Amino acid sequence: MLYKDDNDDRYPYGIRINTPAEYLDPSGWVAQLIRHMGNVTSGQPKALLCTSDPTPNPPAGAPFAVHYRGNRQVLRDVQLTASGPAPLRGSMIPTPALISVHTEKDSGNGLVRGQGEFDNIRNNRNTPNASGKFRSPGMTWHNWGMTSSAADGHVEWLKMPAYNPNAAPPVDLEHLGDILGDDQTGMNYPKNGHQKHFLRQRNGGGGF
Questions:
Q1: Looking only at Cα atoms, what is the longest distance across the chain?
Q2: Cα 192 from Cα 125, distance rounded (Å)
Q3: How far, in Å, are 2, 24, 97, 170, 205 from residue 87 at the CA level?
Q4: pTM exceeds 0.85 for this model
Q5: What is the count of structural domains for the chain?
Q6: For residue 132, how many other CB atoms are within 10 A of its CB?
Q7: CA separation for the pair 83, 174 (Å, rounded)
């Protein structure tokens, strides 16, 4: 990422964006990256939109829509006490091509998810929402998959598990892995041999 290269090898770090009112907080990853890309915030930043996403409208109170969520193990915040807390440096990632930084979501969903929250998505994937519908469509707009940007800057399509209403949770998230390293202690779900991107290198220490 150019941002990292221009900021002493550090990824964005600051608050965890929990509400629409915090989209433009200067210490959140959205505002930090928008400023770096030269985009204005008076309108919709096109870099934050996926043209295949049918939820173009921002949630109530938000200045614009954001179709991507940050991996909390990389885009850290002051509340992630397991990491120190401290910003993640690029030199701390042994294999940047395999670590996810951003994945897709609906415009109304949260802007940051950590490894435990991705595991909650897995565990609840086959549980219909209050309306009896699939609860994670933002991760499936591209042929039942989503795009993921890696720490080295390249993008991959990640297949997601099929939706089987009220069935047992899937054993993993298909192409999105949890722990990349050989030591799988503390993993939420195991390696499956065909995962393209991972959320963290190891358990503990914020994931790296």
A1: 47
A2: 18
A3: 16, 19, 19, 32, 12
A4: yes
A5: 1
A6: 7
A7: 27
The count of residues in the chain is: 208
Residue-number span of the structural domain to which 84 is assigned: 2-207
Per residue, the 3-state secondary structure of 186-200, as one string, reads CCCCCCCCCCCEEEE
Q: What string of pLDDT tens digits covers the 208 residues of the chain?
A: 678 989 999 999 999 998 988 999 999 999 999 887 766 667 788 889 888 888 888 889 999 999 999 999 999 999 887 767 789 999 999 999 999 999 999 888 889 999 999 999 999 999 999 999 898 888 998 999 999 999 999 999 999 999 999 999 999 999 999 999 999 999 999 999 999 999 999 999 899 9
Reduced to 3 states (helix: H, G, I; strand: E, B; else coil), residue 192 is coil
CA 118 – CA 75 distance, rounded (Å): 15
- List the beta bridge partners of residue 70: 102, 112
Q: Could you give the 3-state DSSP secondary structure of residue 144?
A: coil
Give the three-state DSSP class for 9: coil
